[in-house]
Amino acid sequence: MQRQSLTLEDVAREAGVSRATVSRVINEVPSVDPAIRETVRAAIRRTGYTPNRAARSLVTRRAETIALVVSGAGEEDESAQNAFAARVFADPFFGRIVSGVVAFLRTRSMHPVLMFAESGPARDDVLAYLREGRADGALVVSTHAEDPLPPLLAREQVPAVCFARPALPAPVSYVDLAHGEGGRMAAQHLLDRGRRRLATVTGPLDLPAGQQRLAGFRDALERAGMPYVPIAEGGFTLDSGAAAMVRLLEDHPHLDGVFAANDPMAQGVCQVLRERGRRVPQDVAVVGFDDSSVAITCTPPLTTVRQPVEEMARAMARILQEHIEGERTEPTSLIFEPELVVRAST
Amino acid sequence: MQRQSLTLEDVAREAGVSRATVSRVINEVPSVDPAIRETVRAAIRRTGYTPNRAARSLVTRRAETIALVVSGAGEEDESAQNAFAARVFADPFFGRIVSGVVAFLRTRSMHPVLMFAESGPARDDVLAYLREGRADGALVVSTHAEDPLPPLLAREQVPAVCFARPALPAPVSYVDLAHGEGGRMAAQHLLDRGRRRLATVTGPLDLPAGQQRLAGFRDALERAGMPYVPIAEGGFTLDSGAAAMVRLLEDHPHLDGVFAANDPMAQGVCQVLRERGRRVPQDVAVVGFDDSSVAITCTPPLTTVRQPVEEMARAMARILQEHIEGERTEPTSLIFEPELVVRAST
DNA sequence: ACACTGTGAGAGAGCGCTCTACGGCGCTCT
DNA sequence: AGAGCGCCGTAGAGCGCTCTCTCACAGTGT
User: Fold this and answer.
1) Hey, are the CB atoms on B95 and A116 less than 8 Å from each other?
2) Confidence grade of residue B75 (pLDDT, cut at 50, 70, 90)
3) A110 plus A195 within the same structural domain
4) How many CB pairs below 8 A link A and B?
5) Nucleotides on strand D with an atom closer than 7 A to protein CB?
6) Where is the HTH lacI-type domain positioned along the sequence (chains A, B) (predicted)?
7) Mean per-residue pLDDT, B113-142
8) Which of A35, A60, A85 delimits the end of a domain?
9) Which of A264, B181, B202, B324 is the most buried (most CB within 10 A)?
């Protein structure tokens, strides 16, 4: 690869100026004579010069790279580790996060390195990567509660921003959704549709998001004079949603409205309802959460509570950038409001 | 960040040896006295030293990073560009590719930078990134035919490996599936199930994968004495599959078997069939392609032709690594065999 | 006893860039 | 007219690492 042999020195010689002047032109330092600037630019074009990033990073101490970490709780088994990335991306949620992050970063000429921290060694890799200065900070998306990564990052004083409030206490910034508000909206919508025999399939209750969605849902019903609601806990997967629905139907065969704490579970709920001869939405109305792509491909398409994921991801990247630039030093939280998207399932 | 102030020099002083010796220990050069090696290791542990990657890259001319590029044909409109990443990851396919790539890279302590080259400027960014030496090579996944990126990479002599044979001729390595064989398997399976009035919803026919799947399907039917098969072209999306099925049913209301060239289209096919009163598989058997996650969540679960995507992605990463290391200099192709996964839709 | 090989550690020259000094120039101000 | 003050460029010192070259020393053969 002879493209590496071109250095600032070569361009400087070509343009008849010094190395430093070329560097100034490249870094757009204003105090350069416009005529000289043009000469240098022409020389750069002529030679096809591209600065070497490692050399620049060495002195600026900036990698212009951030780590985008998907962090799990600890998969012990090796095949589960290998499938981790595939499982993660099976949820359209992550694609939307990536989309938002990239949308922000590309305007700043920064780039994301994709890392998976699903086991202890993988977590150490992430930490080492940051410590080596290969990335300037980390964006963390946890798939499980009790993710040990945020506290570790905080301890190493690495700039970091989490998607969702970390369950383990750690002084890091995060963006999150007003999950409770989302649960409340789902309840209110079902009530507005005239449903009174409601139930909910919750997310994992060790996850703050799971708890808060349930709490908001309950809260709204309590205010409407319905303090007791049947609940069944799910695991945010289609199968777990289906299983939870089976349990609910056994005890409460006459229910007419279900709030599932995410869309895949709502799809499972719909499948079970249909198998048991209930029509959606005529007999039972179903509300999901997240507005992921399954909400649209589901039969029927799901009414769901939308998280502005892309916007949240963009904000997450922006806050990280501010931490890196030193414009922001204290951990910050930023909470977004959900939005109800009404489709055919209610 | 004072963690940057620790250098080789500090460790050398701490261990009472020279900088070079510490470097040797870190790079596991064998010709170091075991006793000294231990002393140095202890000093590294004591000080918590981590090498600075930029400095190392500067001299080794290795970034230990590869670009994982998702390349489109050219989205002009800005909001389409922003949604590109989300659309890409809506297809579980990419999650599986990422999974395979990461599985290989992590054993080599290399890392993937995620890049999207859906427009001209974005493509230039990718090229600049490689030229700056921030990545040692590129893994390219094209979403459209006529992707201009592979020839550009070839021209710049950047080590690169594509997922699927590039439509535009370029001397780059690639991994691919024996798509024709997959089409043949689908046809044979439908014939084995006793179906004789077959049709197919093809992929985009400007894409080699689309052409080859169709060609294989036709070939098998021709051998079975059925030279004419109704076809309708789709665009690899659910909606396009549904629309194609509508057209097929208009002209051929009595068909009893459909091969859709990917799973989302097969799902669209199933939806239309159900709406038009056909039971799947009793009245019409449906075969998909890819074995993506929709194949499982679809009603009914899809019989489909599976690509060993993770394995292909792993191989792609391995070949790239070999190119980077200089162990492999000529463009190489590696073709994988598909596998039929039988589920409820046939 | 001597040169001869081999082994392991140190010295030092960069890798390509940025950035702080500093110097020369022409201008204004007193 | 001389000092002062921008303004624009240049020189040169690193950033932290790798790696070649060199050298010291011990062990071997004659």
Assistant:
1) no
2) low
3) no
4) 155
5) 7-12, 14-20
6) 6-60
7) 94
8) A60
9) A264
